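Case study 2.
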Amino acid sequence: RAVSPGSWFELGSCTKGARVFSLRDLDFGDSPAQACFQWGGLVGWFVFQVALLDIDICGPSIPKMMGLEGEQVHQSGSGWSPVYVEENLGVMSVGFLLSSPDDAVIWRGPKKNGLIKQFLRDVDWGEIDYLIVDTPPGTSDEHLSIVQYLSAAHIDGAVIITTPQEVSLQDVRKEINFCHKVKLPIIGVVENMSGFICPKCKNESQIFPPTTGGAEKMCQNLNVSLLGKVPLDPQIGRSCDKGQSFLSEAPESPATSSYRNIIQRIQEYCDQHPFQEEKII
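Prediction:
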């Protein structure tokens, strides 16, 4: 919950009391990155100070979606300065350190861990209310590192993103099991690509049928909260490709309404689990 000095190394300059949650994903595509993009912007609408940390080291897509391609990280006396989309939305990604967006990052675990630690220790985020962490698919070094490094900072929890198909849900169950094993709270699950609502007739079609009940059934079986379902909207992909805010481009879209409701659920979770500062030795 708090991003503050702690553990066995310093956690940058984030203010005490900031809420921290990780977006995790086991399905195809860049669903967590899209969610970070939309949710980061939406939280910003509520006049919160938001930091978005992209630790998808080998596939950083946040700069593209945020319209920040070509931006660079600058060094200051207090550390690295994040790249700002708005005054209240700062972003840090390995994509800002590459000479070209087509450059491949071919790193083993220790080097990835070192960069994640540096992002947390050396970035001058300033005072923030929310730290959103975008992780790559799976349960790899990046996931273990962020949980370990932020263990003393009281991560509010993980938001896990899936799609309705069983092939995705099967992997998401492993992700939920991972969270239980490392004692990372699960805020809830989001079902992405959940049906398509025709903009004319408003009828819903299941493009990816939930053959085993989808995320809703899985959440019931595993006693995990379902935060919401985000329907397909072609405008989401177009907005991400252009680095524009889908929320601004399509304010009346059912997907925008879903994003708003999900953010509200996450805020309610944070309100129900207030930060309690502990003494770190």
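The chain has one domain: 19-269.
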